[in-house]
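Data availability (excerpt). The following record was deposited with the supplementary files.
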Amino acid sequence: MESTTSDEIVWRKSSFSNISGECVEVAWTDGGVLVRDSKQPEGHVLSFTRAEWAAFLARVRHGEFDAPEGDMLAQR
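Predicted structure:
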């Protein structure tokens, strides 16, 4: 899924995002990677270098941010 702001930044969110829109959107720019809350597109935007983003994704793929066993949020 994509949405575009007036600045011509293409925002993308996962095709797995739920109907209520509770997800983040990501945009790739010449300067790096931008992340925002899809429920508040005019709100705060986080900015990362491509190296920071790659390091974050590597840690996600490694399972470093997985919820602990028995975590109530993980059971949702």
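Summary of structural features: The radius of gyration is 14 Å.
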